[in-house]
Amino acid sequence: MARSAILNVMVQAAMKAGRSLARDFGEVQNLQVSLKGPGDYVSQADKKAEEIIYSELKRARPDYSFLMEESGAVDGTDGQHRWLVDPLDGTTNFLHGIPMFAVSIALERQGQIVAGVIFNPAMDELYTAERGGGAFLNDRRLRVSGRTKLVDSIIGTGVPHLGRGDHGNYLLQLRNIMGEVSGVRRMGAAALDLAYVAAGRFDGFWEDGLNPWDIGAGIIMVREAGGYVTDLNGGQDVVESKAIVAGNEAVQKALIKALKKPV
């Protein structure tokens, strides 16, 4: 597949950061099992990956703004473009030696996501998408699942945990979904969840309480694979809403309907 110059820059940054994470991932299981030891180590791995991405993207497009998980917002002189960067999505998986984590980079132009890269270095899977150019996994064109009924579908989700999210509301949502689908999966990395929807591995996905860097790249990945992405109310301002429902047209609509069923 032919990539644009800007997508090549994003791929280079994601893969360089991913190689750094892969080296650190090989060491994480050798650490003493204590909250301080592994937690601090993963934090350093996370920050190092973000510094790599920032350096690569800044050198290529010095005027663009940034919104990053670790370092927050960095304003550039170009008010039209912004990078959304998650250097390590799936930190808890990383900490526990589970190879489900990824680097996620998206480019926003005038408030619209126009390109995205998601790279899982542990599995050597590189997902790329650019507006109007389709979505790809390691240069293979992606297409969302063709299943049209929830009863046949595998649905991904994010489960709130200690100190995060509205547990009661989520349990109501889960009750509404679990009785209508073939299975529910919780992978622990929203960027990969959305990449899996784009690849047709998941038929749909929903989660609340997400940040722009969690979902920026995944949004364009799903859309360029022929899927639909909205907030829980069907709105298009997904990045700012922090809530997302994704899938092919039929499954995505059915998910929204099921999620909003009265108690």
Amount of helix? 25-40%
Which fold name fills CATH's third level, the topology of the largest domain? Fructose-1,6-Bisphosphatase, Chain A, domain 1
CATH architecture of the largest domain: 2-Layer Sandwich
Q: Can you tell me the residue ranges where pLDDT is under 50 for at least 5 consecutive residues? A: 32-37
Computed structural class: alpha+beta
* Overall pLDDT: 92
Order of helices and strands: HHEEEHEEEEEEHEHEHEHEH
Q: Please state the overall shape, judged from the principal axes of the Cα atoms.
A: globular
CATH class of the largest domain: Alpha Beta
Q: How are the strands of the biggest sheet laid out side by side?
A: 2-1-3-4-5-6-7-8
* Backbone CA Rg: 18 Å
Biggest pleated-sheet summary: 8 strands, mixed
Number of helices: 8
Q: Approximately how much beta-strand content do the residues carry?
A: 15-25%
Q: How would you name the CATH homologous superfamily of the largest domain?
A: Fructose-1,6-Bisphosphatase, subunit A, domain 1
The count of β-strands is: 13
Number of domains: 2
What does this entry look like structurally?
- The protein has helices spanning 5-28, 36-60, 91-95, 167-178, 190-198, 212-224, 238-241, 249-259; strands spanning 65-68, 72-74, 81-89, 102-109, 112-120, 125-130, 134-137, 140-141, 154-157, 183-185, 204-208, 228-230, 243-247.
- By secondary structure, the protein is an alpha+beta fold.
- The chain folds into 2 domains: 5-141, Fructose-1,6-Bisphosphatase, Chain A, domain 1; 150-259, D-Maltodextrin-Binding Protein, domain 2 (3-Layer(aba) Sandwich).
- α1 (5-28) runs antiparallel to α2 (36-60).
- It starts with a helix and ends with a helix.
